[in-house]
Amino acid sequence: MYECSNLISTAQMLFEMTLMKFDAHELIEADANLGPICFAIFIILVVFVCLSMFISIINDNFHQAKEKNIENQVMWSLMMKRFLRWLGLKKSSRAEIYAENDARMRLKYLDPIEDFPEKIDQLLIALNKIYINQSNELKQLRKAGI
């Protein structure tokens, strides 16, 4: 068979086989028994692989949509609570107030290591000011003769 003479033409022939656009007579002429068996095995494997990919893509997207749906429900309930509180139709319980304050505090002090370089810079600036002030006072005392 000419289609199997090099790699590119073989790949093209296999692609045409998956699309069912090929000459089956050449395959049967090459070998009457082995040609149809190889064709059937190839089609079954290709369909199995493509079907597996299709199912895995659908399954992955289904799980992502399900997770987003849960997040959307939580967001919706939070928005409704805040809207009703803003209208004054619903009063906040002590537990909700404590939970909100706790959440604010956790967000404020969530990861203090991120602010560490800024805090070190502030400390160095303060120490530098103290050193400069003490140096100036020492110079003034020496000028005064004390």
From TrEMBL:
The keyword Transmembrane applies. GO terms for biological process: detection of mechanical stimulus. GO terms for cellular component: membrane. It is a multi-pass membrane protein. GO terms for molecular function: calcium channel activity. The chain crosses the membrane at residues 34-58. Residues 5-64 form the Polycystin cation channel PKD1/PKD2 domain. It is found in: Membrane. Keywords: Membrane, Transmembrane, Transmembrane helix. Gene3D superfamilies: 1.10.287.70. InterPro entries: PKD1_2_channel, Polycystin. Belongs to the polycystin family. This is Polycystin cation channel PKD1/PKD2 domain-containing protein.
